[in-house]
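Discussion board: Methods & Data

I've been asked by a reviewer to show the raw model output for two of the constructs in my manuscript, not just the figures. I'm not sure how much to include, so I'm pasting the format here to get opinions. Each protein appears as its amino acid sequence followed by a line of discrete structure tokens. Is this the kind of thing reviewers expect to see in a supplement, or should I convert it first? Here is construct A:
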Amino acid sequence: MEAQVTNSKDEWTDEDKEKLSQHSKAKSILCCSLSKKEFNRISACKSAKEMWDKLRLTHEGIDKVKETRIDILVAQYERIQMQSGESIFQMYSRFTDITNGLAGLGKKYETGDM
């Protein structure tokens, strides 16, 4: 959401005030939800949209990078097996990390696919 109000503060309408309020809330939610490291990445951004876009690019990457990440995770998904000395819980955690990574990149598996 871009908060663009072109008239001076004295001339703000109720709609302008609401727009700015929503923009401030969006920025606040983003800032309060992030770790210090993530916050430092976006702290110089002027708008909530700019913050969101920077976070999205950082975590998803451009389309080519996203496709490569999906390919790597799919390969890990297809080859997953219990490692020597690994508990069922540890293997399940690795499996969950892979499927969550895929879901975060837009690739979802149905129960029948697993």
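Construct B, same format:
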Amino acid sequence: MMGRKVGHRIGMLGLLVMMGGMVVTPSPLRAEKETASGHVASGTTLEEFQRRERTVSALLESYHRLQGSQGGASGANEQEILGLLEKAKSLVSAGQLNEGHAVLEDTYTRVRTAITKLQVANESKTAGNKDRGDIGKEKTAREYNHLHDSFRALQEARQRISHEKGLDPNAWTENSRVEAWEKEAASLAGQDRFAEAKNVLTQAYDLTRHAVHSLKSGTEEKYAPLRLPEENTENNRQKYAKRVRSMESLLATYGEIAQAKGRQEEAQTLIARVRAVMEKADASTSADHVNQGMMILDSAYLEIRKSLIELRKGDSPILEKMVWGDENSPKAQADFKKKMVSLRSLAEAHQRILAEKNRSSEGEAIQDQVQKEMATASSFVEQGQTAQGRMLLDQAYVRMRDAVEHLRQGETLVRSLNFASKEEEYLYEVDRNDSYLMLTQLLVANKSPEEVKRVEALIPESTRLRQQAESQAAAGEFAQSVTSMEQATEVLIRALRMAGIPIPG
């Protein structure tokens, strides 16, 4: 059976309480009620009502803080909301639980609307001075609100399906964590920190989404087991060799550009450090620990890529737009989001392994650091600096992945060369293609017009193949997408060689 990504599967027990304030237990007070969409959902318990009341109270506190930060005082909106909250409590006290819950849901909607209006009013005051960052924040606020609506819809679906299957929603051990995420997200949103709020809430959303999927499919495992890959396969060694060739090309590029900029000493130091890491990777591979060798190699690979980008800051390579495109394009944004999801899954795996080994306190520092890097990366994207945000996210990913590998001490790799699926192999080939795109951008810019033209003639073919690969991947045809992406990379390699640039292998 194909291995699966950590944190992306939750079984029966894992489905059972992610309602963020809507935990359901069997109760004689339960009754059927009609939802806004016309579906009949299970009734409400007193515990559910109390949990939702706490969520509304937290949002109300956020609203009050936001209003105060804008120099306002408690107004009609807040008084009306407080009145509804008291009405809901009174109905419950009178034994009208479902009616009280309906009023509470209306209260929830009103406080959300009030927060949004305050934010819009604040933005209107400064509309004349809006910069890109302000526009990005407004967009992120809308995305957060949309995500929260989707999250609540998933909560309702999870609740309904679990009861249809006769399952106890309280049986899921992650309940407190998801509740804490929702509360933290609401607090952050109330402070106008929507990027961070979205990151936090997405964790709860992803778990709930997979919970619903698992409920529907009848999966009873909480998490898919981590895959124990075979290391010494021919496929593993071929992939390792490809990465080494990419490293050699990057090092040659770095040395050439550093020399042209008069920074040879700096380059020699970096190249020596990277080669020392490569030697360690080779030693591990020679000892039949190919996966460990790849892990070691990847850390150096990221460092040299980052150094190359830093070295070329301020330059305007001829092929920059053609090769990289707009860093704030929908595709760049989508790639960033995919990487963020992968990093969150890895962070969850790290937390779970720590818990399994009773070493939770050891992981607090790196978890905090990575969470901050995720928030900072999102901020970069909001400000239109997607490339910088992606680089920071890549660093956090490597750091977290190495932490997982250290905990497992070689017993398991979250991502290895012996891929758990064709989808994972496709993602590897995307990364490899990105590397050669960067080489094209960096190297060809320094060549003669004739050599540049030879490369330009091949770039459209590589772009076509990459787009074909992306379309195949979007359709779930990952085996074909791997082949297409490899072909796209081979075209780039051929283009570089035609421009007189030696590419190993």
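Answer (T.O., handling editor elsewhere):
This is acceptable in a supplement if you add a one-line summary per construct. For B, something like: The chain has two domains: 13-217, 234-318+326-443.
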